Amino acid sequence: MIAANAPDPSLRARALAYLQGALGPDTQLTRLEPLGGGACQEIWRVGVSRPDGVEGAFVIRGDPAVALPGSLGRREEHAVINAAVAAGAPTPAARWLTEGLLRPGAWAYTMELLPGVALGAKVTRDPALAAAREKAPSQLAEALTAIHTVTPERVTLPLPVPNDPVAASLDALRETMERLPCARPAQAAGLAWLMKNRPPPGEITLVHGDFRTGNLLFEPEGLTGVLDWEFAHWGSPLEDLGWLCVRDWRFGALDRAVGGLCRRAPFVAAYTQRSGRAVSAKELTFWEVYGNLRWAAGAILQGQRVLSGAERDLELLAIPWRAAEMEYEALRLIAHHAQTSPSAP
Amino acid sequence: MRPPPDNVAVLAAVATFLAKELRVEDPAQAFRVKVAAHLLGGVARGLKVGEALDEQAMGLLAMLLHEEAPEGPFSGDERARRLQTQSAQLSARVLAGEINPDDETLLQGLRALLASELALSNPRFDLDDQVGEP
Known about the structure:
heterodimer, A: 345 residues, alpha+beta, Aminoglycoside 3'-phosphotransferase, Chain: A, domain 2, 2 domains, five-stranded antiparallel β-sheet, two-stranded antiparallel ribbon, 11 helices, 9 strands, B: 134 residues, mainly alpha, 4 helices, 0% strand
């Protein structure tokens, strides 16, 4: 471990006391180091051992010093994750919510460290994961179906419930676009098309908000975990389906529209079979156009974090140039929809 | 005048060095080196053909705004300012409903605009791929 990454001794002491409180007074801390993420995330990898020989690997997630707009704090995320776990979503439970562990006033919780690979390039192309990709349509559908059984009628969560989930998503997209440092006519055209082609409000469920390749853990046997719940919200369940099909999440596996893992048809069929929700091509196109525009705008803002001096990460600086790819895809989806739907305006 | 190499040649050579020759063991650092090469490649292409693509974009935006194409040549700053103004005007008109978002001319013009951006940022982007359906 390099010195710059070493936790300060008082954090080590606080983490030990926290874990002893959770796991027992004879618990020892064998590892405490930051796990990727950079300045905007507070993620620590933790190893513990106990005299009875039990060892454990955990991740502590804490509130970042500067949160991304629209992202949940750890306290809200803790509630969301545990509601999803209770509904059967394949995600590790969020445990031992606490305040002030990493920084005064900042909330944190602990999750089990799951085995598996999330890296997009590997997940979409590694021959060792071919069997996992075969199972993707049914396993992705199953995970999303479980998440989408969480509804405001059944579960109380610290999240605002919109009157009209479609309108709320369009408002959020427009607000993001208004923060851009440059005018993007293709995004404006896409937003205008979405407003003109919006589906009826429909039902409201828990939406993961970032359900995509890169946030899904796979082992050769299949999907093992759904990560990164910070963009969860009450909304239209189909928003998650469209987001999973956003072009960037194919990681070059362009003929597998669903996250570079599988084609649309078997995935949508599996989702409909499990959830009982019919998903029309028109609705999926709507949410795919929405997702591509959301990421196009978001990608431009990622670069702003570097240009504003808030972060120093070359990778973030390269992301805004990708916006044109998602905008092009959104326009292509709109044209494709017009060609394949003779009754469309 | 400074003898060759010019700026484009230097950037292209450094980008090639970073992408193809430099060997970095740490995977995270190796990935950053690739990102750096990618960024420099984009800068080199911008220096080489950015001006011509800007002129083309100004013409396309003028066409979509039903205006006369601006007569250059303009400095780089002036081109950026004009492109931003034209883009903001077109965005506002589309969002105000003055231009139909299904309009074929609009959609084709916007795709041409994005294609010229992609020629700089990602020349390998497949413009003809069909929304992920083979």
